[in-house]
Task: inverse folding
């Protein structure tokens, strides 16, 4: 196994199972196990909620009990919102998926148990697990939707496994302009401002420096320097045209 | 403002707005702004989907345009799944909320724009923002549900703001047993095993050490030592009873 396995114990709503499949697919997970879904399986409503993550739903395996669903795994996490007084290691999502990454890299099969929408996992089911995962929720409003809980684990798995690579970055499409181009832009700007007596007598040096700092902060690309230079020219020319 | 503001631009489904409110409340966010919801507002279906996060829904403010919804803010993130060719800084959720934490601590108002369920934000709306946030999704399945996107930002805000404190920890309810108690447990166990000739001649020292290592790995609490000692006694006594 190359990823953790998501195991839903007696999920009730087909829509939730579909949203779980979607959340898994968003972060590259695909192995889903269902322990006796309350309303049977397969079930209408799941596919539309999965909005495209059909491969996860169709690959889902059915089991009668949580014990059977984890029989082939080496390490199992149980998710719970509340303390159960069990003497187990307790992880947050990030630490749990860091642990999972290490174990999966070492060839272990890792699973995550999620309980029923209303009542969660039973204590006997939690006692099947090696460790507990809980979420850093606001104690005043701690009930996470099932698909939301699966999403957070999938998100943290993706970050642990791939470093959370973004689909695109903010790298400049064109490189920062060469200093000479920037300085000549400053010269041009200051000359045009001089021509309209923008600078009060003797204030020019300080005012020019301050304005250079504004534009330096932009770290302009070549294209941006050309764009701004064009805008200044348009303002200056336009003025000259207005007074013939 | 002490938290980032969640701004939904033309959300379509009341259920999604409700699930957004729930996701926000899970991680301590409460300020929600709605830009002309497609089917009007307030709308049935939102409350049940919020499953208790009514304070967020009832505090939601309505605006006609994204521009009006962010007018009072100092720094705005725009969320998008795809590159828009805009020359903006691009953040992942964790880095974005780290940035938000610093700005909010400095007294700035920070908002996060989320687009329509199907089409996301328009380029003109994104151009209102200071920076872009995108998610480390699987490129093959990158469409996040609206409430899921809000959940990830809320989760990362909570982690940036509070360090992601868990509702409970795995600290031992009773401290690790004193070494003397552990060693006397070993003596008792080995004596009982001797009594039933468990150890082959001359193998006892190595076998005893290996078994001690198993139990050392448990880092047993006092209660656990008592429990195991009782179990061993029961096995031994039972045996004696069986052969009178």
Result:
């Amino acid at each position: 196994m190359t990823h953790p396995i998501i195991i839903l114990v007696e999920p009730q709503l087909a829509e939730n199972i579909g949203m779980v499949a979607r959340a898994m697919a968003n972060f590259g997970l695909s192995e889903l196990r269902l322990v006796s879904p309350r309303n049977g399986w397969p079930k209408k409503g799941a596919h539309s909620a999965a909005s495209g993550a059909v491969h996860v739903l169709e690959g889902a395996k059915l089991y009668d009990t949580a014990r059977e669903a984890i029989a082939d795994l080496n390490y199992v996490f149980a998710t719970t919102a509340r303390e159960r007084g069990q003497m187990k290691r307790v992880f947050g999502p990030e630490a749990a998926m860091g642990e999972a990454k290490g174990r999966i890299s070492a060839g272990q099969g890792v699973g995550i148990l999620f309980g029923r929408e209303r009542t969660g996992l039973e204590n006997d089911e939690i006692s099947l697990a090696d460790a507990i995962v809980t979420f850093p929720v606001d104690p005043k409003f701690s009930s996470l939707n099932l698909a939301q809980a699966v999403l957070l684990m999938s998100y943290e798995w993706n970050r642990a496994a791939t470093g959370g690579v973004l689909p695109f970055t903010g790298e400049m499409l064109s490189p920062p302009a060469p200093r000479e181009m920037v300085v000549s832009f400053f010269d041009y700007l200051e000359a045009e401002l001089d021509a309209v007596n923008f600078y009060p007598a003797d204030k020019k040096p300080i005012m020019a420096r301050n304005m250079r700092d504004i534009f330096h902060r932009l770290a302009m690309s070549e294209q941006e320097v050309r764009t701004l230079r064009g805008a200044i020219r348009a303002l200056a020319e336009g003025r000259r045209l207005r007074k013939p």
About this structure: Chain B touches chain A through 51 residues (CB under 8 Å). The longest strand of chain B covers residues 5-9. Chain B has ten helices and seven strands.
